[in-house]
Amino acid sequence: MTTVRKRSVSIGGHRTSYSIEDEFQAELAACAEERGLSLAALIAEIDAGRQPETNLSSALRLFVLAQLKSTRGG
């Protein structure tokens, strides 16, 4: 079983935290690198596009899932 870890990031000049598993964090970092962004910049982009009722941790997981599905055509 994977441990959920709490992490901190600055978005728009303020600190916030999110909790995700190491595997999701690794995929986020890979996506950021592929786009030439810092991890914080990618998280800020995801945060800006999420629905108000979706928390940041869920939005990050859903982003990773969407990225993985798009690479396999699903």
Q: What would a concise description of this structure say?
A:
The protein is of the alpha+beta class and 74 residues long.
Task: Give keywords.
74 residues; two-stranded antiparallel ribbon; alpha+beta; single chain; 3 helices
Helicity level? 55-70%
Rounded to an integer in angstroms, the radius of gyration calculated over CA atoms is 12 Å
Q: What are the segments in which pLDDT stays under 50 over at least 5 consecutive residues?
A: none
Number of strands: 2
Strand content: 15-25%
**Helical stretch tally:** 3
> For the residues shown, what is the average pLDDT?
93
Q: Which word captures the global form?
A: globular
Strand order of the largest sheet: 1-2
Strand count, sense and barrel status of the largest sheet are: 2 strands, antiparallel
Structural class of the helix and strand makeup?
alpha+beta
Q: Which oligomerization state do the chains in this entry correspond to?
A: single chain
The termini sit apart by 26 Å
Describe this structure in words.
With 74 residues, the protein is an alpha+beta fold. 55% of the residues lie in helices and 22% in strands. The protein has three helices and two strands; from the N terminus they run E-E-H-H-H. It has helices spanning 22-35, 39-49, 56-71, and strands at 4-11, 14-21. It has a two-stranded antiparallel sheet with strand order 1-2. A hairpin with a 2-residue loop joins strand 1 and strand 2. Helix 1 (22-35) crosses helix 2 and helix 1 crosses helix 3 (56-71). The radius of gyration is 12 Å and the shape is globular.
